[in-house]
């Protein structure tokens, strides 16, 4: 979908997110996930944290056979996402669910579960959705660097940001200690991790 018109529409969506202070994936992290989806032939994706639909649109545009379920609890963003997805004619491929991701119960198995919701809930998202991973499925988690603050907490003096960074650090420790999953950390974009089921030795 590399047409000039599509690239313009994507750019417009990114600019809108920027001007409206809606956090969306950084380009480097996005390219990394798009490459992963292509190289592993990912077909069914669950995304926690839709925002205005930018990442789900990028995922779905890779291949018309890709299906995306995406969850958003902010009603304004939910409606914006639904509108944007329909503008890109991707309503058949992307389903947006309104509500708290911790309250849904899906029976489907996903090739990829993308965790991009509230940072304070990452461990809960992981624990809740691990049974929804297909046998070769992976979790991809974003924002594990949080603008470099996870590595250097002194960058901020803001108390709520410090609390958030501590939670991200706890999630990183949780992933490192997790015996069920092997996680690889990548310092690209805002810090991305891929977690896959550990092989039984
Ligand atoms: C970083 S943004 C998502 C960006 C989007 N994935 C993209 O790159 O275009 C995180 C979004 O997750 C939503 N969110 C946070 N916690 C959530 C939860 N428990 N359930 C549903 N949505 C959640 C927030 O309202 C916010 O819009």
Descriptive notes:
- This protein is an alpha/beta fold and 201 residues long.
- The chain has a single domain (4-197), classed as Vaccinia Virus protein VP39 (Rossmann fold), CATH 3.40.50.150.
- 38% of the residues lie in helices and 21% in strands.
- It has six helices and seven strands.
- It has helices at 4-19, 27-39, 54-60, 75-87, 122-129, 159-177, and strands at 44-48, 67-72, 94-98, 110-115, 133-141, 181-186, 192-197.
- Strands 3-2-1-4-5-7-6 form a seven-stranded mixed sheet, with helices on both faces.
- β1 (44-48), α3 (54-60) and β2 (67-72) form a beta-alpha-beta unit.
- The longest helix has 19 residues, at 159-177.
- The site of S-adenosylmethionine (SAM) has 20 residues, from α3 and β2.
Summarize the structure.
The chain has 201 residues and is α/β, with parallel strands linked by helices.
What ligands are attached or bound here?
Answer: S-adenosylmethionine
Report the major sheet.
7 strands, mixed
Find the CATH topology. Answer: Rossmann fold
Q: In the CATH hierarchy, what is the architecture at level 2?
A: 3-Layer(aba) Sandwich
Proportion of residues in helical segments: 25-40%
Q: Which CATH top level class fits? A: Alpha Beta
Q: How many beta-strand segments?
A: 7
Order of strands in the sheet with the most strands?
A: 3-2-1-4-5-7-6
Helix/strand-derived category reads alpha/beta
Rg measurement, Å: 16 Å
Strand content: 15-25%
């Amino acid at each position: 979908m590399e047409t000039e018109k599509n690239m313009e529409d994507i750019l417009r969506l990114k600019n809108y997110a920027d001007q409206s202070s809606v956090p969306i994936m950084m380009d480097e992290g996005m390219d990394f996930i798009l490459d992963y989806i292509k190289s592993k032939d990912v077909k069914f994706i669950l995304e926690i944290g839709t925002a205005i639909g930018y990442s789900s649109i990028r995922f779905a545009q890779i291949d018309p056979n890709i299906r995306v379920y995406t969850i958003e609890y902010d009603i304004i963003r939910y409606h914006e996402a639904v509108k944007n997805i329909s503008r890109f004619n991707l309503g058949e491929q992307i389903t947006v669910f309104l509500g708290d991701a911790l309250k849904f119960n899906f029976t489907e198995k996903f090739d990829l579960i993308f965790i991009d919701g509230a940072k304070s809930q990452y461990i809960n998202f992981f624990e809740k959705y691990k049974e929804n991973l297909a046998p070769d499925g992976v979790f991809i988690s974003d924002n594990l660097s949080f603008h470099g603050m996870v590595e250097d907490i002194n960058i901020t003096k803001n108390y709520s940001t410090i609390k958030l960074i501590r939670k991200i650090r706890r999630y990183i420790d949780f992933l490192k200690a997790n015996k069920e999953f092997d996680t690889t950390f990548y310092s690209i974009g805002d810090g991305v991790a891929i977690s896959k089921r550990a092989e039984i030795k």
